[in-house]
Amino acid sequence: MALLVSFENRIDESINAQVLALKRSFELQPFTGLVELVPAYASLAIFFDVGVVRKNYTKYQTAFEFVVEYSKRLIDGMDINTADRQNRTIVVPVLYNGEDLHFVAEHHHLPTDEIIRIHTSKVYRVFMTGFLPGFAYMGKLDERIATPRLAVPRTRVSAGAVGIAGFQTGIYPIASPGGWQLIGQTPVKIFDARKENPCLFKAGDRVQFVQITKHEFEKLNEY
Amino acid sequence: MSTLQDAGRPGYRSIGIGSGGGMDFFAMKVAGYLCGNTNDGAVMEINFPAPEIFFEQDAIIGLAGADFSAAIDDEAIPSWRAIYIKRDSLLKFRRPVRGSKAYVAVQGGWNAERWLGSCSTHLKLGIGGHHGRSLQKDDRIGFEACPISFDKSKILPWQISEQELARIYKPSNINRCTRGPEYGLLNAAAAKNFTEQPFEITLQSDRMGYRLSGPSLSGLEPIELISSPVDAGTIQLLPNGQCIVLKADHQTAGGYPRIASVIRADIPKLAQAVPGNSIQFRLVGLAEAESELLAIEQVLQEIKTACYLNLKNYAARSGY
Questions:
Q1: Pick from A19, A5, A1: which is nearest to A126 by CA?
Q2: Which of A120, B193, B240, B301 lies 20 to 30 Å from A222, alpha-carbon distance?
């Protein structure tokens, strides 16, 4: 079972920082029976083992009641700043040759070079991972390049494709159907099931995209 | 489609890897316990049309879940039983009688690839289980040597009581659920339809989710949701007013309103539903959701111990 703690329903760095601060509080002070913590943009799911919780916290009528009480206590004592200080910045090289780069440029009446300049001019935040194993939702994009999803998703997007959807940007970790506007391709493997830590990104990381040439792409290609 | 599954790989949802595992966790575990296993090793999850399995060596198997009219060398064998299979025998599933997922466990567990602590097949990543894919014709899957040997195949004498099974699987069309985070978005008419009208399981149903067809619940107030966590059993409301129930291989996050969640104790029942079946939802409180789950866990514990001892005594009586 899981308890969902929801914060204000918007895509916002400070709200996501609160989600991660609460996650960190649980990691530092886990209760017996905690199974896993799943952060999203503005909510945190706390999965727990009902039987273990009931056995260990016998004062409560239900395991759920205990987890609610425990969460309230952590929320009251939580420190937003500690969670965000520890974040790393990951540099991601991109060859901006995506199938939708021209569409995105036309959509915004900008040259493609300007789309690339704007996409690389900001350090993004990884808000959460989901949709596919290792798929990191990053943002927020500059309004000048924010573009709606494709009306009809592609049946296959290749691994490493860099896309944008609304105010979000992200990289396809594995080949998959997908509806994001594709603007480029990274040579870096962002998900590798055979590694001990399969996923390059985690929520709270910062990401800086850097433009590379086709020659550099070939030198760096890990796929 | 048939795959190797176990209890799943919890702990990786935060990097987008769902827990996965056997869809009917009760039948899957019981299959393993029936043949004397005490840990949750890899079990074959079988959908109809089912494979024919040729045993090249002696085996004790546990058979549970859907009734697919199983037979060994054309002699019928019942479900929810342990069976000794003589080498060079063929296990067949002749026709689907009841349910959608049959589980075949073997004493000691099927040899399977373990990834992130679990042998469950992750079909999307192509990892875990048997080469990360569903089982195909001519696949060979190993298992430990059988501890006993007889002249021919036979049904072993212990079984799971009808009463216990009825408690878990009946009434088969009622699925209890708790309110979801966005339940409050349903208007009165939609909320009434949700619990009073039947929903049909459509053909667009797989290990990721069941798409339902029923009364439109589009009385929903418009709200823009941002991606948030979901779980097996989560009932999401699609923009067209229809529902989808997430299953074992669901994505870890979704953007559709989560109107309710099928309680874990009713997941086995739901997993055994087949396209065309009609189901109904009944709202219950969290206390009932928890006590029903604890009851199932208790039953599983008892079955595990009883079957282990039954097999041990049986082997001893047979001179092993």
A1: A19
A2: A120
SS3 B51: coil
- B284 contacts in A (CB within 8 Å)? none
Mark yes or no for CB contact B15/A134 under 8 Å: yes
Residue A88 dihedral angles phi and psi, to the nearest 5°: -95, 165
Alpha carbon of residue B177 to chain centroid: 18
Query: Measured in Å, how far apart are chain A's first and last C-alpha atoms?
Result: 38
Q: Which amino acid is at A203?
A: A
Pairwise CA distance, residues A140 & B293, whole Å: 41
What does each of the 223 residues of chain A score in pLDDT, given as a tens digit? 999 999 998 899 999 999 999 999 999 999 999 999 999 999 999 999 999 999 999 999 999 999 999 999 999 988 766 656 667 999 999 999 999 999 999 999 999 999 999 999 999 999 999 889 999 999 999 999 999 989 888 989 999 999 999 999 999 999 998 999 999 999 999 999 989 899 999 999 999 999 999 999 999 999 9
Beta bridge partners of A178: A154
Q: Is the ipTM of this complex over 0.90?
A: yes
Query: What number of CA atoms fall less than 13 Å from residue A9's CA on the CB side?
Result: 11
Tokens 């595992």 belong to B21
Residues of chain A found within 8 Å of residue B223, distances taken between Cβ atoms: 9
Measured between beta carbons, which residues in chain B are less than 8 angstroms from residue A35? 10-11
Distance from CA of B146 to the nearest CA of A (A): 33
Separation between Cα atoms, residue B274 and residue B203, nearest integer Å: 9
